[in-house]
Design a protein that fits this description.
The chain has about 100 residues and is mainly alpha-helical. The chain is built from 5 helices and no strands. The chain is elongated.
């Protein structure tokens, strides 16, 4: 599946695969969207000039993210809110120590 770029059609003619090609405006969305988390990570990495500062930031972010990230789809609303309040209380307690 490809989008409507003409270069794809020309390449398919060269390898004689035109009849198997599906083209459409949104047919390529699944392939393109699968790369988004990786590209988001790349954009974040470009903001840092040195690998050392990037590593510091990532290590801090991972500890915070792991502490507060809860799979919302696994919990009911009440349990999710209780877990969030407990995580925030624990984080504040750790910050005071």
């Amino acid at each position: 599946m490809t989008d409507l770029l003409r270069s794809y059609g020309a390449a398919m003619k060269v390898i004689s695969n035109v009849d198997k090609q599906k083209t459409g405006r949104w047919l390529n969305n699944r392939a393109e969207n699968s790369h988004q988390p990786f590209r988001r990570r790349e954009r974040t990495m470009l903001r840092f000039r040195r690998a050392r500062t990037l590593q510091k930031s990532v290590s801090i972010h991972s500890s915070v993210h792991n502490h507060f990230n809860q799979e919302r789809h696994l919990y009911s609303r009440e349990n999710f809110k209780l877990n969030g309040v407990a995580a925030l209380a624990e984080w504040r307690h750790l910050g005071m120590a």
